[in-house]
Amino acid sequence: LPSIISREPDLQNPKRTRALKKSLRNIYKVASILGIFLSMIAVLIPFACKFLSKDAAVTAAISETVPIMLAILSTHAWFCASEGMLLAFRDLKFLGRIYAMFFAVVPLLILRLKGAARAGANVNLLSVWSIFLGYQAFRITAFTWRVFSLWRRSATEEEMSANMVLEDVKV
Prior knowledge:
Blueprint: H1 16-43, H2 45-52, H3 56-64, H4 66-88, H5 92-118, H6 125-170
Helix pairs in contact: 1-4, 2-3, 4-6, 5-6
């Protein structure tokens, strides 16, 4: 990726935008395949639970979380691909800010859940994993949006730079 991701438009390499688009497509294809594989693992959680606990209540509680685990695990590879692309784009400011926000928000939500449990609300394993599902959904949305906006900006800057060079050549 270093040859197709740069901060400066590379006028010597007009194929960079197409190469970046192809790389993004391939990375997300692999992430989707891995997501399918991780989904299969999530579906197997209730079967594995039988080997880890004989308690029916524990097995029922864990089996209840399978849909959430399916959602989290099926999208995890897509998130990792997006985060990797943001690192390749060197968008560390965005990553730092969003992780700082997560560092504050997720513990607050967990502490709020703990407070609700102490107050007598019905809090269970599903409640905790629902917070992590929201966290995962937000991360995937934010990171994927950022990757595609950076790619679009990169393509636009490259096109504008190429047009300027063509205008200079005509003059």
